[in-house]
């Protein structure tokens, strides 16, 4: 749990999480405080990674400070600020409960703090790639931290990517849970196109002919590849919809925006519901029960700037009884972020996957 007016981006789960001061990485406000109480499952201990601690220096960190307390052992860590930083980037505790306290008085500078944690069940922490294949544990909440993603899910990622954000972008882990990520390093391609996936947009990047490997030798740049469980395109045997638009254009010609035109490979105009329809839906029949790991949506660019900005997903085994998709947290029906224009494709992963014949 967290409390106070100085809390920034925060996502806390029993097994991992991310927390930051308000406005991070911009300057944190004056006269604020935040208290986070981290609680891991019994029998485990907490490991905290200091991603950034940049608090204005002062004697005994009086102007701004980060203080950690272990109530089970009575141990305190800190106070920390710019002239009294943690001695190591990783703090290994012997407790399943840790209180993190941040406060500020009047100050002029400082990015604030960014801290992530995991339990002793998941000791791996994100770090620089040192081998050709390595594994890291990504904490929950990394989606909204500062940093750019370079590359896209189909082409791979630069080795300077924010690895855990890239894993969310690729649909390998869910941001609300985190998880273990295995990466391999291979030769990079020349052009990485920008892509929007799972609520994150990567940047377009052009690599020059020659770059430097992490070891400093001349040669093609390296990239990190994070592969979802499956990237095969599933065949849809039948489409059905709540309604479809029967358009009559200015020349009196008919155009049927029927459900069958919803296939991603369709050229020209797409499916569209009857104008004014509320709670429109589109059904996809896969023929038999299949393992569905994600979905790609695209608007219709044929004369009309049509696209879906957000949507829910339902699944069914018989086409009659529908179950809402609630994602990895299982608490609320998940709202998927769709398109912002009619041109680009947007992908969203199902974590966990859906096993069903019908998708709505």
From TrEMBL:
Gene this protein is translated from: Dcbld1_0
Stored InterPro entries: CUB_dom, FA58C, Galactose-bd-like_sf, LCCL, LCCL_sf, Neuropilin_MCO_CoagFactor, Sperma_CUB_dom_sf
Protein name: DCBD1 protein
Record's GO cellular component terms: plasma membrane
Pfam families in alphabetical order: CUB (PF00431), F5_F8_type_C (PF00754), LCCL (PF03815)
CDD domains associated with the record: CUB, FA58C
Cysteine pairs bridged by disulfides in the record: 7-34
Keywords for this protein: Disulfide bond, Membrane, Phosphoprotein, Transmembrane, Transmembrane helix
